[in-house]
Design goal:
Layout lengths: L9 H9 L15 H26 L4 H12 L12 H22 L2 H32 L4 H10 L5 H10 L6 H30 L4 H36 L2 H21 L4 H12 L5 H25 L3 H6 L1 H28 L1 H10 L5 H12 L7 H21 L1 H11 L2 H18 L2 H33 L1 H7 L6 H38 L2 H4 L3 H27 L7 H17 L1 H19 L10
Helix pairs in contact: 2-3, 3-12, 4-11, 4-12, 5-6, 5-8, 5-14, 6-16, 8-9, 8-15, 8-16, 9-10, 9-11, 9-20, 9-26, 10-11, 10-12, 14-15, 14-17, 14-19, 15-17, 15-18, 16-17, 20-22, 20-24, 22-24, 22-25, 22-26
Length: 620
Amino acid sequence: MLNLKPYENTARINNLFQSETLKQPIAIGTAMHEHEIAFIQDLAIIMATAGFITIIFHKIKQPIVLGYIIAGAIIGPYTPTVIFINDLDTIQIFSQLGVIFLMFSLGLEFNLRKLMKVGLPALVAAVLEILVMIWIGYKIGGFFHWSSVDSLFLGAMIAISSTTIIAKTLSELSLTKEHFAQLIFGILIIEDILAIAILAILSSIGTSEAFGLSHIALTLGKLLLFLTVSLSIGILIVPRFLSYVAKLGGEETLLITVLGLFFGFSLLVVKLHYSIVLGAFIIGAIIAESRQINAIERLIGPLRDMFSAVFFVTIGLLFDPHVVVQYALPIIVITIAVVFGKVLTCSFGVFITGQGERTGLRVGMGLAQIGEFSFIIAALGLSLNVTSKFLYPIAVSVSAVTTLLTPYLIKLADPSANMLKKILPRNVTYVMRVYTLWLHAIQSNRQRSEIKYAVQKSLITILINLALVGAIFICTSYLQKPLTELIFSKLNIELTKTILWSTALIFSLPFLIAIYRKLQALSMILAEFSIRRHVVGRFTNNARKVISETIPVFSMVIILLFMLVLSSDILPRIELLFVIIACGIIVALLLWNWFVKFHSRLQISLMETMKKKDKHSPQD
């Protein structure tokens, strides 16, 4: 069984370093131990079989991922009479590397600019698809009397489409530059983000057995805060650091540095009790903003391909044909649900945002499969010992069938749209066309679009700065114990809390001032459009002034309460707290211009990094 827990093999490693073998001098050419020979033999069998199957699948023009799974099934313990693989535990360690390298490569493909271009249609379609498919999977599990956890994991497994399979299929069909393909890529990006959230929630449920909405909301809130802070700070620092490293020397230095960032950040994420795949994805997304991304992708490619191949072959090793025969009916039902559920939800989600029924159907039929994320979710359930073993071969079987159907479904999209147009009543098609034209007319209103864009940009800036403020206070609370032991051991607890909370407030001032200024701008826009002169008359200016000055102050009071909740562990006494806040306000007023310039420099640096030439421009 695949194991995603990071420290599963710690005891075995410790025993290895304590063994007598490592106490002896190591001589080149000495005889290898039997377990070392067995490991090399297993790896040789896996790579040789995978290579042979890859050649065949290239010839027949089928997805390589499916070939790896079949290769694993061929040499797996359930299919042949001869056991080819001796040390499955060690192979599983390599497969875990395959998982995080796969997530790292998905992060490298993450593109904020491309996501913004397809924005609302991709977001609506992705959210609708995932919610409906999770519900369908849960209901299917209940229909077959599976446990609630099995049903929940099944819903998550069939909710996410395969980025690898779709990208390869569209490339082979020369459709990557089509508008519907761009929508598909946008939906896949959002799916990848939501899949990370799903993994975090499932990990939390698997370890705490908590199903409450409050628990899920808290998990999502923490995850969103962590993502915002990590991406904001990472994009400011990492691309510049990699540019400096690239100037120093050759590609080897760049590769080792990237791998150091990759494994180091993944370890940090594990220490914060998140999944290691989350860390791999985030650091990949951060590195994707570097100007060296093309060189990094070229250098990482061979490592990713090797470990990913081992991962998918290991999936095949766990494939049990007897379970497939036993669960043939569920596999058929789930496959039908995946195809029709994804076609309907994605098509509807794209259509209601004004993209037209033909484009919607193309998008829906292009996303009607499951793939690598389904395997990762199934592996997570097995590693946590919360799901039944039959879910894994079911996921592999459904993925294999839907993968084979994908190119044919994409080719059938236009004929299906023509057939649908003939079948539907004329009144229905007329209403659909009028609806699409109406949305296009709304979106073409330039003034409203500019105002809407300004409001959205201000809200995003406020949320990012608020997340950074929250992170400062959370980190300060987290560091209370080690700092007390190292620095403040001779001070009483009240004075220590006062120093820590004051320090957090000082570091937060640039972001709090930025929030206040954005709130002022938003309240002025709101006052302008909500208070009309022909309604209020001569009191218009006064009414607008009241709104524009009240909203920022009221909002800052709410933000202060938010800060107090986050920093409850380091809050000083109430009278000291008021003194600290008063001093903070005085410092902010005295150094207002300096704080504004400091934050502006950070914002400019972030925007310069984001506005670099898009490495995916050929597909935009």
